[in-house]
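Task: encode each sequence below as structure tokens.

Item 1
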Amino acid sequence: MFSQWKLSYHRIGTESAESMGEKERGAHQNRRPFPCRSTNIFLWAIISICGVAILLALSLYQFKSSNAENLSQSHGNTCGNSSSEALSLGCSFDQLMWAWYPKQCPHYANDQYLVAEPENPWKFYINPYTKEVASDDDWTRMLNNEVQLYGERREHLTHCVFMYLSVGQIIRDGGRYTPKQVDYEHLHHCSKILLEALRKDDTWFGIETGTPRVAYDQTC
């Protein structure tokens, strides 16, 4: 392996400087650089690692893109895009919040809201001007966002009352809740419409309520 290098080494005094120079030049002309095996192995390792990393990155990107595309096409929303998809995914409709909930989400105050007017249940209409009452088929289409129904003012106000109750239940129970249940703009809207209605009450200026005792035991 190292025979080429030995050509340039000689005992001192055995040959003239000229002959040594000629042989030395010949040795340099015949000499070829030895490959650095450790360097080549290192380079190949780096290239291999980079190649594997690129392939993994491409595969992951393709998987995410495919998964995102499938979700957006079929079940982009937690409960799908129709009532049939929602039911097939185990979701149930919350009329208080007008939304489909997955099975792990509690329906705060929805049951109380639904029976708030047992003697005179609310009516929903397909046309607010002709007062045409919505049929079962209209409700099915509404649940698929194909038509819009119209409700009575008393239902709207009752909804706001029980929405506040649902927030109280969420605080009480400390459980799961959906973003729509605690949307501040929605709560602010309910405050305004309730006050608007209450100010029209004939007893608005009536004296009927005693102030509560001042509490000193509260903390936060």
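Item 2
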Amino acid sequence: MATAKKINPMVKTALELGPVLAFFAAYVLLKDKTFEVGGQTYDGFIAVTAGFIPVLVICTLILWRLTGHLSKMQIVTLVLVVVFGGLSVWLNDDRFFKMKPTLIYLIFGGLLGFGLLRGQSYLRVVMEEVMPLEHEGWMILTRRVCAFFIGLAILNEVIWRTQSTETWVSFKTFGLTIAIFAFFMAQGKLFQKYGIEKTED
């Protein structure tokens, strides 16, 4: 696998989070509007989803061009956005796009769980360079992340099926991000106990 090239962290953050924030801003502006295209009426959510897909594709391609690397999660996310976002626009049904986070978290939670059944930490494969840990630390963290992802999948299903679209958009944009940040911040003691200090020549 090719090593990712270093780029300005601000540029990387803008390319990764920019499309999501743009989706939220566009939805706030267009949520109460409707659009007539080819004799079909689309609400603001569907229109914003249609715009979000090419924006995410372009930003992901730029990121790949600059770094020469995309993570497995970025690739899977892009594919699911194109497929389920495309279905939502094509069928004029927002349910497909709202199910996307559920599938993302179930896929990664399932993969981590499969690895645990084999006595392995697949999380270690993708994060070891960022957070070097002892084997036991990786196994504990993987179990926690697996359970966390399954929990997020269930939570997303509950939110989009029981709450308004506006509530779901806010949850997807901010709630999920805050939850992931809080989760990893809560692992501080584990990182301290099982962390391995890197030695540099």
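Check on item 2: DSSP finds eight helices and two strands in the chain. The longest helix spans residues 135-162.
End of task.
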